[in-house]
Amino acid sequence: MNRGAAGRWAVSTAAAAAVLLVSGCGLVGVRLSDEAGAPLRVGAQPTMGPEPEPTETTDPALEGMELKNVTFSGDCPARVGLYLPDDWTSNSTGSSFAAFPTTGGFDGPRLSVLCSDAFADSASASVSSTQEYQFTDDETQVVAEHMGQVGPGYSWVYEANLGSEETMASFSDEPTTAVAASIAYPISGKLYDLSVTYYFNTDDTETRDQAVASLSNLQVEGVTVSSPADW
Fold it and tell me: What is the rounded (10 degree) CA torsion for 71, 76, 80, 85?
C-alpha cells in the first residue's frame, strides 16, 4: 500500500469510528476531505424529542370573559383583539364597536372602540396630542397611566376618575371612571388613531376589574399593548 492510499484508508477508518460514536445522537452529516492534513468534519445534533406540553398562558383575571376580534367594515383596516365580559352584548359600524351588559341600560357600564385617520406626523406625536386634549374638566384625575411602543405604533393606557363636565360622565350624575387605551398605529404607510374605553360607575369594582384585565391583554394587529404596572 503506497503512502497516499494509506492516508486515505486512515481517514476512512476515523470516519467510520466517528459514525459509530455519534449514531445514538441523531447523525445529520459526515464529510471527508482528500486534502493532506485536512480535519474530519462531523455534524450531529440530539434527536428531536416529543413536543413539549402546552403551558397555560391565560390571565386568571380574564375568567368570565371571552376574546373578541374586532374588525371594522369601513376604511379602517386595524384589527383589535380584546377580552369582553361574556354576559355583554355588542354591535359595530364601519369605524366603531360598542358593548354593554345584556341587562344594563343607557346609564350602565359600556365599552367604546373607535378608529379614525390620524393627522399627526408620527404615532408618538398623535398619542401625545390625544393625551394633552383628552380631558376638559380640571376635576378629572388620572390615577394610573403608561405610555409606550406598540410595534411600529405608540399607546397611552390609563385609568381616570372623570370630572362631572366630561362628555361621557353620564351615569345618572354618579362619579364615573374610564379605563382606556389611545393608540396610534401605522398600517400600509397610513397612520390610524384607535381608542378603546370602558366607562362605569366609580364604585362598580366588578366592571373595573374586568376593564383592567381587558386592557392588560389588549392587542392591535397581533401586538400586545403595554399597560400600567400598578393599576
Answer: -60
